[in-house]
Design a protein that fits this description.
Shape of chain A: globular
Number of strands of chain B: 10
Number of helices of chain B: 11
Strand order of the largest sheet of chain A: 6-7-8-3-9-10
Helix content of chain A: 25-40%
CATH superfamily of the largest domain in chain B: MetI-like
Radius of gyration of chain B: 32 Å
Order of helices and strands of chain B: HHEEEEEEEEEEHHHHHHHHH
CATH class of the largest domain in chain B: Mainly Alpha
CATH topology of the largest domain in chain B: MetI-like fold
Number of helices of chain A: 9
Shape of chain B: elongated
Oligomer: heterodimer
Strand content of chain B: 15-25%
Radius of gyration of chain A: 18 Å
Distance between the termini of chain A: 43 Å
Structural class of chain A: alpha/beta
Distance between the termini of chain B: 31 Å
Strand content of chain A: 25-35%
CATH architecture of the largest domain in chain B: Orthogonal Bundle
Order of helices and strands of chain A: EEEHEEHEHHHEHEHEEHH
Chain lengths: 248, 393
């Protein structure tokens, strides 16, 4: 019996009348790297945002380490401290320098010591190759650099899981590589990652498991080989054909 | 860029200093006399100067604002008085004449020497001070005293002359008014800003289902109150607000305090809306990022949203200051002598409205333009979006 750190049970999400998620089941073990693929509108991002309660699930359970946070929403801080999020549009705090972007949450939310937080922030920036930018204004960074800082920021709370919501979709093509490299390094540290992505090659290389979503349900899931080489479902095949054609 | 800012401020300060020195009135010396003779002392105490206009008595004060010919007495009782006057602007006649002046006992004939104005000093020359020396003689006793007076320029009939006259002659009054106007506007805007922070905090309270019912009701009341405040103060003219608090409620003993109160309250409503707009314009991603890092609503507001909203609102808040420089003119209605009210006073002195209001228009323009320029420099340095000279609320 595997031990699951995160379980999503029968998750439904409506936006007014429209059902975006139609009963999602997802079990995540520690250290697992899961890529979620699918065409836009399939509910991949919504799934990720529901896990972090940026969207309120309409129905279902989000269980992290035995606690169902749908029923314990007053403890969301505990969930969010352990389940970090990296956004498509980076969402660095515009009013803060690079290093303050990293230290604000540990200092203000966890009430950690400022000096140790700064030391830790510098370590994290080192990890993403942004240490020399520590005292820069975030405005001066390129998209790729911003996303690397955002990843470093998400690491500051020592999360067990990181949710990546299309982390490279807003980037110029030449900057995608630097972000993916950082994510690859991160994957090797044993951290659990859920990645919504359109980078199929990357998903194939990095993932332990790939999930193909279509119209609000998990249509097919399996190892990267299962999905990318021998997809069972026609929809999966069609999707991959389309995506890979676009790439060429 | 820093240089330019410093230069602008320096120019402003130097101009201010020059104007202040021009406007400085010379202090007038009072006359004294030293003698043991009671007759001479009595004469000294009782002699009068007489204006050529209806032979009215000229007090020593009026001698300081001289604009007409006048007469000095040749004697008082048995004391004879001879006069000396050394001035290119005034001439003292050697020949005495007799005039009839009104006194408590009816018309009295008095022997006097006429003093005629040879030329009126120009406004550029300014006041002409003269010394009138009087030699009092009674039998073999004599004493000397000096009276000091000033011959003042007369307002020219031409428009430009009138403008120049009004500006130079009353610069001190204008400056007092301008200082008050700037002071009320600045302090009002600053206080208004802090009030606005409170109002906006009230108005943007988020109510979630997880809170208890009483908390939700209290929050809703606060929200409604904040909205009502904004509607009330933006929806009524400041002149009405000022009159309401000063004449209506009469809560204040001091008009200035009342004026400051009204400007602060009024500005707070406008700035609250500015900041609320600033908050709404912040990308939702900022809030989401804060949430995902475990920040609660207060922390998100305090550390992420508010700082950005306020920074973005700074140019518009600066505009409120400039608008206040103009709009505080309505405080004249409750008797505060800010720039506009001072001008009304000045306009009434010579009944030359056109010149007075022309001058004050230039002064207002100078104030708003200078403040706008300084704010623009500050905004540039702070890397904020720029705004043009604002129109009134």
């Amino acid at each position: 019996m595997k031990e699951y750190i995160l379980q999503v049970n029968n998750l439904h999400k409506y936006f007014s009348d429209q059902e975006v998620l139609k009963g999602i089941h997802l079990d995540v073990t520690k250290g697992e790297i899961i890529s979620i693929i699918g065409s836009s509108g399939s509910g991949k991002s919504t799934l990720l945002r529901c896990i972090n309660f940026l969207e309120q699930p309409t129905q279902g359970d989000i269980i992290y380490r035995g606690v169902n946070y749908v029923e314990h929403q007053n403890d969301l801080i505990h969930l969010r401290k352990n389940v970090a999020m990296v956004f498509q549009s980076f969402n660095l705090f515009n009013n803060l320098s690079v290093i303050d972007n990293l230290t604000i949450a540990p200092v203000k939310v966890l009430h950690k010591d400022k000096t140790t937080s700064r030391e830790k922030a510098l370590e994290m920036l080192d990890l993403v190759g942004m240490r020399e930018f520590a005292h820069k204004n975030t405005k001066l960074l390129s998209g790729g650099q911003k996303q690397r800082v955002a990843i470093a920021r998400s690491l500051m709370m020592d999360p067990e899981i990181i949710l990546f919501d299309e982390p490279t979709s807003a980037l110029d093509p030449e900057m995608v590589g630097e972000v993916l490299d950082v994510m690859k390094n991160l994957a090797e540290t044993g951290i659990t990652m859920l990645i919504v992505t359109h980078e199929m090659q990357f998903a194939r290389e990095i993932s332990d498991r790939v999930i193909f979503m279509h119209e609000g349900i998990v249509h097919e899931e399996g190892s990267p080989e299962d999905i990318f080489i021998n997809p069972k479902e026609t929809r999966t095949r069609d999707f991959l054909k389309r995506v890979i054609k676009e790439k060429d | 860029m820093m240089n330019k800012l410093v230069k602008t401020i320096l120019t402003f300060v130097v101009a201010f200093a020059i104007i202040l020195t021009i406007g400085q009135n010379e202090t007038v010396l009072a006359s004294t006399i030293e003698t043991d003779s009671t007759e001479i002392l009595d004469a000294y105490d009782n002699i009068r100067f007489y204006s050529s206009y209806n032979y009215q008595t000229l007090t020593e004060d009026r001698l300081n604002q001289l604009i007409v010919d006048f007469y000095v007495p040749a004697s008082y009782g048995d004391v004879t008085i001879t006069w000396e006057l050394d001035s290119t602007y005034l001439s003292l006649s050697n020949h005495s004449e007799i005039i009839s002046v009104q006194s408590t006992t009816g018309l009295v004939d008095i022997e006097v020497y006429p003093v005629t104005i040879l030329q009126v000093p120009s406004i550029l020359h300014g006041d002409e001070t003269f010394e009138l020396v009087g030699h009092f003689t009674y039998l073999d006793e004599s004493a000397t005293t000096s009276y000091f007076g000033t011959l003042v320029p007369v307002i020219p009939d031409t428009f430009y002359g009138g403008v120049l006259y009004t500006f130079i002659r009353y610069i001190k009054l204008f400056l007092e008014g301008a200082a008050l106007t700037l002071g009320i506007s600045l302090v009002g805007t600053v206080i208004g800003f802090f009030l606005a922070l409170l109002i906006v905090s009230g108005k943007t309270l988020t109510i979630s289902d997880s809170e208890s019912k009483s908390v939700r009701i209290i929050k809703q009341i606060i929200q409604k109150l904040a909205s009502f405040y904004i509607v009330l103060f933006r929806g009524t003219p400041m002149i009405v607000q000022a009159s309401f608090f000063w004449y209506g409620l009469g809560l204040f003993g001091d008009a200035l305090a009342c004026g400051l109160f009204v400007v602060s309250l009024n500005t707070a409503a406008y700035i609250a809306e500015i900041i609320r707009g600033g908050i709404n314009s912040i990308d939702h991603g900022q809030t989401e990022a804060a949430k995902s890092l475990g920040m609660n609503k207060f922390q998100t507001m305090r550390y992420v949203i508010f700082p950005q909203a306020i920074k973005n609102s700074m140019p518009a808040i600066g505009n409120e200051f400039v608008i206040n420089i103009k709009d505080t003119a309505v405080l004249s209605v409750i008797g505060i002598f800010e720039l506009f009210n001072q001008t009304r006073k000045i306009a009434g002195m010579h009944y030359r409205q056109l010149e007075a209001y022309f001058v004050v228009a230039i002064i207002y323009l100078f104030l708003t333009y200078t403040v706008t320029s300084i704010l623009k420099q500050v905004e540039k340095r702070m890397d904020l979006p720029l705004k043009e000279l604002p129109s009134s609320n």
